[in-house]
Amino acid sequence: MKFSDAARPQLSDHRSRRRRRQAGAEARARRAEAAAGLPDWERLREAGAAIRERTLRDLGTHLEELEVSVIEEDGRVHWARDAAEAKRIITSLVGGETDVGLVRSDVTDEIGLKSRETGPYTKAAVVGAGFLVAETGTLVVADPGESLTFPGTLIAVAGIEDTVPAWSDLEVLLQLLPRSAVGRRMHPAVSFRTGGFDLVLLDNGRTRVLADETGRSALRCIHCSACSDVCPIYERTGPRPYGPGRAGPIGAVLTPQLRGVEAPLEASLPFASTLCGACADVCPVKIDIPGLLVHLRGEVVESRRNRPVPAPELLLMRGLAWSMGDRRRYEHTLMSRARWARLLARDGRIRRLPGLFGKWTDARDLPAPPRQSFRAWWRRRR
Amino acid sequence: MRIAVFVTCWGDALFPETGKAMVRLLERLGHEVIFEPSQTCCGQMHWTTGYRPEAIRLARGFAEVFDDHELVVTPSASCAATVRTAYPRMDPALAGLPVYELTEFLVDVLGVVDVGASYPHRVTYHPTCQSLRTLGLADRPLRLLREVRNLELAELPMAEECCGFGGAFSMKNADTSVAMVADKIARIRETGADAVCATDDSCLAHIGGALSRLRSGVRAVHIAEILASEAGEAPGAEQAGERLAERAMRTRPPEAR
Amino acid sequence: MSAREEILGRVRAALGDPGAAVVPVPRDYRRWADLPRADVVALFGERVADGRAAVRHVGTDELATAMAAMLWAREAKRVVVPADLPTSWLAGLDGVRVLADVPDLDPAALAETDGVVTGCALAIAETGTIVLDGGRAQGRRELTLVSRHHLCVVHADQIVGTVPEAIERLDPYLPLTWISGPPEGRTFEVLVVED
Predict the structure, then answer these.
(1) ipTM value for the complex
(2) What is the CATH number of domain A3-30+209-305?
(3) pTM metric for this prediction
(4) A274–B164 CB contact, under 8 Å
(5) How far apart, in whole angstroms, are the C-alpha atoms of residue A280 and residue C105?
(6) Which of A216, A296, B25, C37 could bridge to B228 as Cys pair (CB 3.0-4.6 Å)?
(7) Is C57 part of any domain?
């Protein structure tokens, strides 16, 4: 379903909107405070962006290094092409064990894993990784609630992009993540474990994103959800209209990249934004989300350009560009459109426009175009 | 100085008063203003809606129009932002065009904050997202407004929240867009201002259109009109001023009368 | 083709030649705190307190008394300690039953204790964090997870200023836990000991 259609009913859910508005305001205030407390915040962001970009540019090498490190430290690595394969692998690793807990993450949600929370004596745990350090084979989990003892069977789950090249890179990422994710200087608990676990690495469309030189920067994401917390659209619509994947600004960018822009939801997601830029301001790894949204809008338009029956919007935009491509055509269009629009006006206001433009006048007036355009005034004056 | 003005396609047709105000202001400050009639559109709308080839053609056309000029000033922060940050992505040859938004031109290039204006109304300022984050105008518009005689400047709460226009967003996601402007309008009304001003007629059309639909009595005005106003000078401004003053008396909260 | 080959193949195809310029990482952020030792220790105390933990600063000779007072204030009657916790720390504990975790106490026995006392591997002033690595005077991770109350002894010279300093000093091959505040419904206290 298109984003705009799914969003409409959500706007009536006043309680959820109020909750998100309060949560958003608190998160923004805490995050601003936490960031202000670090005089080198901007320098950390630059370093974080570069570390993540470096990881992506040479991802194959880092993944192989990670594999070697994990195996050397008594672990095993499993590769999953898609969510279904990941689920099968995890199910078989859990085996007959019924006492299984879950530490959820974006990736465990993506795979569709559900289970109860872990406790200190849980026998088997499936853990959504925060980071995986390639150099040492270390699993890092920022645990929001009950921490876990690493029990008999520990299965870590991560996207291929959740790799971090070196142990020392954590000195940057563990300063950026807590402030961006929970608005504090450090998560209440962060657990590190090297070796002795099964690691499931998930592709599920990430290699497709990696192939887009512009779009790949979205994979820098460290899953903090700061962008959602500050997004004025997300505040009003909540996560549902973004579909089954990640929500908020990063979701609007990643879902179409992971799945392609053909279907109605994915084609509408890049447009579910005013490009206000609040997200880019807070992203700890400086993903230029508005830039990526514009890039994806271009992809959507190109994918539809050569349809046998052109969409009304395409005809309109092509027509406008053609009119504005030449002075005489432009002036003629200006005059004829303005005259036509004035016919619709009363007391200097237009209350209703036909067709596509009706969306504007459903809730807003439009001023009637003045009799004299700027250029007509200029000509008169000379 | 010899200044070329870019009034924007939106401004040319719907908000000519903004362009006129900018011309009056720059001439009052003693500069020569040129209007290149071959100007049409900077291509922002096509670029941000995903029509890249069309946008690039319009951008190249824009560059050609102003080829002879070293200073181009526009009242639209979003158009200036497009030329500055999007043009290099469209075509590297289009980087570095000397296009300025009006308030940054006044403060940074002309070095003035007092432009000799008088505007006897209670006004609040909305920093549009493109002016705030892409151009980084910071407090330049406010510094200019503070020097306007008789103007009562009211601070807008939660000023940095987006008004919900976002170009195509206002149509493609009209419901959410309206939900956002509803909150922006509530903040504006909290200030008791007679008028809300900004550096973009696009956002002002959206905010003003909603203010008008609600018969709020609050007017949306481009900052150029405020800066160009002088007591007893431009007739349009004076009449508008009178109308505003009347409305203000009617809508002002009791304790202020 | 195995999933591994397929994925790594797609990664390489997506990126083209990785040999091209390595992305430089600008490392001009703060790596260490530019503060005198006393200020680092004081900062640690402040930051731990921000994280909803009680902090006390004492001299070495007051350690045992302070610990007794803190446990007494919590009405802790039975505490569990790692086997290698220095006995001198426990010298003042009158009327408190101290259980050494050797052999490992079973979950039922652990659940009956009121609290746990440990040392730490190091502490981070900037974030108010204590780090456990399962080493000296720390014991099993279970102890600090299950207990309703955790009292942690931090020596002043174990406190580093910043996260980069901590990352540099810590051994990634040990099981590390960073604690910057108690979980819901639990309490956490820190006793900072200075010579």
Answers:
(1) 0.94
(2) 1.10.1060
(3) 0.93
(4) yes
(5) 51
(6) B25
(7) yes
